[in-house]
Design goal:
Blueprint (H helix, E strand, L loop, with lengths): L1 H8 L5 H10 L2 E2 L9 E2 L2 H20 L3 E2 L5 E3 L7 H7 L5 E4 L2 E3 L6 E3 L4 E8 L4 H11 L8 E10 L13 E11 L2 H21 L5 E5 L11 E8 L5 E11 L1 H5 L3 E3 L5 E3 L1 E8 L1 H10 L16 E5 L4 H20 L4 E3 L7 H10 L4 E5 L1 H6 L1 E6 L5 E5 L3 H26 L1 E3 L3 H7 L5 E5 L4 H11 L2 E6 L7 E2 L6 E2 L2 E5 L3
Helix pairs in contact: 3-6, 9-12
The structure holds one RNA strand of 76 nucleotides.
RNA sequence: CGGGAUGUAGCGCAGUUGGUAGCGUGCUACGUUCGGGACGUAGAGGUCGCAAGUUCGAAUCUUGUCAUCCCGACCA
C-alpha cells in the first residue's frame, strides 16, 4: 500500500483526485446526469463542518446573522445588472418545466410539455440578484441599515470542466450579502471580511495567504472592487481561496433598493458580498498533504487525537481501555477531541496507516509494554516522529503538541511559499520562471491588455495586487510603462 | 465545442491470430495472528459502456452511439 501511495503521489499535480478516493472517500457523482457534482462522504464532510463552524462563529462575532434565500432565481433577475449578466449569463442550470407525466409510449416518465414555465428559473450560481430583490422590501430608512446577512447554501455552475473540490458543478459555500448607508462603510465591510478570511486561512487552516485586490480582468462581475486571499499549493500553483466584493451601488440600482438618509434624501444603498466554498477543503489538502496522506491542522481536524490499543487478549484490552478512558477524559476536559479506536476488526498497523491517511494530528498507542512501564507512544502526523512518554500529564503534553503541530505546518507552508516567491524584472525571465511555479512579483502597467497578453502567452494571471508589502514603483516588465507596485503572477487552479 | 486517450468484478488492471474471461486488491467464513496496512484454507462477485453489423462463434473485427479522463476556451 505504501508503494501504491508513492506511485500515486508521483502524479504530483493531481492531489485532489487521489486524496479524494483514498483519504476523504469522496468522489464525483458517476451518473452522467449529475456529472461534476461531488459526493462528500462523512469524513470529508466532517472537515467541512469544522470549517463551517469556525467561520460561522467569526461571522457572528463581526455582527452578521444567517438567513436563507431561494434556490431558484427568475431569469429576469439576472438581466437586471448588466455587468453581472456578462459574467454569469453562461453556464447555468435552467428549470423550464414543473411537471412530469407517464411516458405514453412506454415505461418511465417524460417532461409534460403542458407544464412549461412561463418564465424559466435559474438554479442559483450565486444569490446577489434574488437577495437584492428581497432587500428592496426590507430597506426604507437609514434606520434599517446595515443589513448584514450570511447564507450557507449550495450553488450550481454548469462548468465545462470540473475538478474535484476545486471546481465542481454543484458546491457548498457561504455567501455574505450586506447593505450599507455609505460607501466608506461598505468598503470597510468588504475589507473586514477579507481580514476574517485571511485570519481563518492562516490561523485555522494553517494556510498562508496573500491579501490583495483583483485586477479588472479577474474582478467579480458587477463588483467595483474584488478583494481576495490567494494561497499557494505545494505544486506551485495558486488557489483563490476566498473573495470579498465591494459592489458599490450596482445591485441597489439594478433592483432599486433605496433608503432615506438622515437628511431626508433618497439614496441607493451600498453593497458587499463575500464567500468561501468547499474549495477550501481542496486547499487544505493541497497545502499540507504528504505521501502518507492528509495532514490536518489540529484546529480543523474532526478528531485531534486517536488512541489505538495494542493487545493480545481481552484482559489486556480491558486494562488498556480503562487507561485510555482516563486519558480521553483528561484530554476532553482540555477541549481536545479524541477518538478511541478499539474496533476489533482492524489491526493496529492498519489503524496507524488509516489515521495517517486521514490526517489525524496525534496518535497515541498503548500496549502491554506501556502498561508495565507507565508509558504511552505518541506519534505526530506532521513530522511522523514517534516518542514514548510517561502517561503522567499526557494531556498537557498532547495539548502542547497540538499547538506545536498547528504552528509547525503553518511554518512549513509559509517557508515553502517564501522559497518559491521571487521578484522578476524582465518578461524573458518571467517566461522561464513561470514554468517553475510559485508566485512571481512583477511590475505591470495596470492595463487589461498587458495582463491578457501575458495570460495568453504564459497561462499566468495576476493573482492579486497585494495590499501589504513593497509598494515601490517601477516599470512594466512587458511594456516598460510606469507601474505603481509589484503585483503577484502565478498559474492557478 | 476543438485536440488526445480510455471504457472488462467494489477499486486498480491484463486479455496474443476471433473459440465463451483472468490477475492484484477489497469482500465473506474459519483458523493462526495483533508494537507499522498479517498469513493460510475455502468461497461469493462480471449481460466485457450501449446498439447494430460481419461470423458457426465477438471482450477481440466494422460502424454508430454514450460516457469518462487529460490538454484548450469558462470559472470559486
Amino acid at each position: 500500500m505504501a508503494k501504491e501511495l508513492k506511485e500515486l503521489t508521483s502524479r504530483g499535480e493531481n492531489y485532489a483526485q487521489w486524496y479524494n478516493d483514498l483519504v476523504l472517500k469522496a468522489d464525483m457523482a458517476e451518473n452522467s446526469a449529475v456529472r461534476g457534482c461531488m459526493v462528500i462522504k462523512p469524513y470529508g464532510y466532517a472537515i467541512w463542518e469544522k470549517i463551517q463552524g469556525e467561520l460561522d462563529r467569526m461571522f457572528k462575532e463581526t455582527g452578521h446573522v444567517n438567513a436563507y434565500f431561494p434556490l431558484f432565481i427568475p431569469k429576469s433577475f439576472l438581466s437586471k445588472e448588466a455587468d453581472h449578466v456578462e459574467g454569469f449569463a453562461k453556464e447555468c442550470a435552467v428549470v423550464t418545466h414543473y411537471r412530469l407525466k407517464n411516458d405514453p409510449d412506454g415505461r418511465g416518465v417524460v417532461v409534460d410539455p403542458a407544464a412549461k414555465l412561463e418564465e424559466e428559473l435559474i438554479v442559483r450560481p450565486t444569490s446577489e440578484t434574488i437577495i437584492w430583490n428581497t432587500y428592496k422590501g426590507w430597506i426604507q430608512s437609514y434606520r434599517d441599515l446595515p443589513v448584514l446577512c450570511n447564507q450557507w447554501a449550495n450553488v450550481v455552475r454548469w462548468e465545462m470542466r470540473t475538478r474535484l473540490f476545486l471546481r465542481t458543478a454543484e458546491f457548498l459555500w457561504q455567501e455574505g450579502h450586506t447593505a450599507h448607508a455609505t460607501e466608506a462603510e461598505a468598503i470597510k465591510e468588504a475589507e473586514t471580511m477579507l481580514d476574517v478570511y485571511a485570519d481563518f486561512a492562516e490561523n485555522f487552516m494553517a494556510m498562508p495567504v496573500l491579501k490583495g485586490l483583483k485586477s479588472a480582468n479577474e474582478r467579480f462581475a458587477g463588483a467595483l472592487e474584488t478583494y481576495c486571499i490567494e494561497a499557494l499549493m505545494q505544486d506551485g500553483k495558486a488557489l483563490q481561496a476566498g473573495t470579498s466584493h465591494f459592489l458599490g451601488q450596482n445591485f441597489a440600482k439594478a433592483f432599486d433598493v433605496t433608503f432615506v438618509n438622515k437628511n431626508n434624501e433618497l439614496e441607493h444603498v451600498w453593497a458587499t458580498s463575500w464567500g468561501v466554498s468547499t474549495r477550501l477543503i481542496g486547499g487544505l489538502i493541497m497545502t499540507h498533504s504528504d505521501d502518507n496522506g492528509l495532514v490536518l491542522p489540529p484546529k480543523l481536524a474532526p478528531y485531534q487525537v486517536v488512541i489505538v490499543p495494542i493487545y493480545r487478549n481481552e484482559e489486556q484490552l480491558n486494562t488498556i481501555s480503562e487507561k485510555a478512558a482516563e486519558i480521553s477524559a483528561k484530554l476532553k476536559a482540555r477541549g481536545v477531541s479524541v477518538k478511541y479506536d478499539d474496533s476489533d476488526n482492524k489491526k493496529p498497523g492498519w489503524k496507524f496507516a488509516e489515521y495517517e491517511l486521514k490526517g489525524v494530528p496525534v496518535r497515541l498507542a498503548m500496549g502491554a509494554r506501556d502498561l508495565e512501564n507507565g508509558t504511552i507512544e505518541v506519534a505526530r502526523r506532521d513530522t511522523l516522529a514517534k516518542e514514548t512518554v510517561s502517561v503522567e500529564n499526557i494531556e498537557e503534553y498532547v495539548a502542547d503538541l497540538l499547538k506545536d503541530i498547528q504552528a509547525n505546518i503553518y511554518k512549513k507552508a509559509f517557508d515553502y511559499r517564501a522559497s518559491v516567491t521571487r521578484e522578476v524584472n524582465s518578461y524573458d525571465e518571467f517566461k522561464t520562471e513561470i514554468e517553475k511555479g510559485g508566485f512571481l512579483l512583477c511590475h505591470w502597467d495596470g492595463t487589461p491588455e498587458t495582463e491578457e497578453l501575458i495570460k495568453n502567452e504564459t497561462k499566468a494571471t495576476i493573482r492579486c495586487i497585494p495590499l501589504d508589502g513593497d509598494k515601490t514603483p517601477g516599470v512594466c516588465m512587458v511594456t516598460g510603462k510606469p507601474s505603481k507596485q509589484r503585483v503577484v503572477f502565478a498559474r492557478s487552479y
